[in-house]
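agent> fetching stored inputs for the adenosine-5'-diphosphate docking request
agent> found them:
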Amino acid sequence: MTKRIFQSTMLVAGAVLTASVLIIMGCLYNYFDKIVEQQMKEALILAVQGVENNGVDYLNELASSTYRLTWVSAKGDVIYDTQVNANELENHGNRKEIKEALESREGFSLRYSITLLERTIYQALRLKDGSVLRISISHLTSWILALGMLQPILIVFFGALILSGILAQKVSKRIMEPLNNLDLECPLNHDVYEELTPLLTRIHQQRRQIEWQIQELQHKNDEFTQITQSMTEGLVLLNQKGFILNINPAAMKFFHTDHTCIDRDFLEIERSEEVSQALKIAMTNDHSEIHLEREGKEYRLSISRIESNGEIIGAVILIFDISEQTFAERNRREFTANVSHELKTPLQSIMGSAELIENGLVKQEDLPRFIGHIHTEAKRLVTLIEDIIRLSQLDETQELPFEEVNLLVVVNEVVASLHDEALKKNITIDVTAEEVYIHSVRQLVYEIIYNLCDNAIKYNKMEGKVEISIQKDEQKVILTVKDTGIGIPVEHQMRVFERFFRVDKSHSKESGGTGLGLSIVKHAVQYLNGTIDLESVLGEGTTIQVIL
Ligand code: ADP
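agent> prediction call returned; pasting tokens
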């Protein structure tokens, strides 16, 4: 803009200077012309008097004058000329100035040479005898005069132009200075030119609008970041070229990356063919889903393309950890298969014995044994079904009633109900506990203690020992059931809490085990937000601690 102001100022200055030079020159030319004409007139009047008094003699004396004097008779013949031989000159009767003088005493004319470089002024006066005296002077035309003056004119012109240039530069700088120093943060504080007020007001309004929109965007962005940051699901936003726009911490963890991945190609971060294929499918078919296994966990990647005004502008990838779901699904399938099997075995056994009795194939003396067998198997079925019901109740995590439970009372009840079982193996049960009250679900506490004590007796040796203790500190209650039984091999210690897992199937069945006891314990403890600890030495015994 400074340049444009400078150029415009210089153009104006140049034009004004040129026009001024031309006008001044014209005025000077006219002025001097008039002076010359006046002087000529005065000289002519003098010459007329001289000629009237002294005739040609006077003119002879003037031969070297600046003016040319021509004396013409009333008929137009040249009588005398101060510069040219009169005989050589043609008749001047037709000349304008002569004609005018003959007619009205005074005559005037102006003639240019053929090349227009010279201009001649003629003035004529009629003498008393009727002849005419003409005075003339030739001088260069204004063009030639101007050319003659070209050097000084050019010097003045360029001098003035340089001066104009310096001034124009200063002026343009001064004009631009307030504009250059304009603070667009607060445009109205620099309202130097009132012509700019509407523009600055508009800028101010637009600034406020932009600020408000930025704030709004920032707010939305913060909201989005807060939501995505706390999401357990991974989230990745890609642009249409597949470059990462946004990624939340869960997704960073999944792809083993950090914030530096933003603005990079997603396929640089995740190089698996499966994922790139799924991304391609989503970009063409709108949506795609794949399951991935990473570090022993199951994930579902759901990829959807994002469109705006019918144009694909990117894609969103959501990563769900479905390990628990898959695990639960697998467990459910295994459980169903196990349940069917576990139910089928005693039923088949009952049916077999019943068929034999029905067909009279059992001797009378064996009958009680067969019926006893049917009874045992039926009892096992009932126990099994009861255990399954308990487990499914815990699975459904329905609200169970919490109350003040006296642990010692529950332990004593369990010991009483298992008294006969213990007696069969001559096992002593020691209870080391004082009265401890906990806020818990009585039924679950009973299940836990019962199953642990039942196992401690079932998997004990003859004349073995079971020690039950309850310890309490400020924050927790530790229930310990220790036996001197057969123990659990190290490799099976983690698996005994699985449904239907038994270390020794025949022993377990023999002693009426369903393989669900410890599963129920585990679930019940989990429901009560407790933990279980198992220590066992093969052949020496097992200690199970429940911390509530
Ligand atoms: P079960 O009804 O067969 O006893 P559990 O779930 O209670 O089923 O126990 C699973 C398996 O763990 C048992 O079959 C047994 O092999 C083993 N087990 C449980 N408790 C003990 C223990 N106190 N001593 C030795 N083995 C045990």
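agent> quick read of the result: The CA atoms of residues 380 and 512 lie 6 Å apart.
agent> awaiting further instructions
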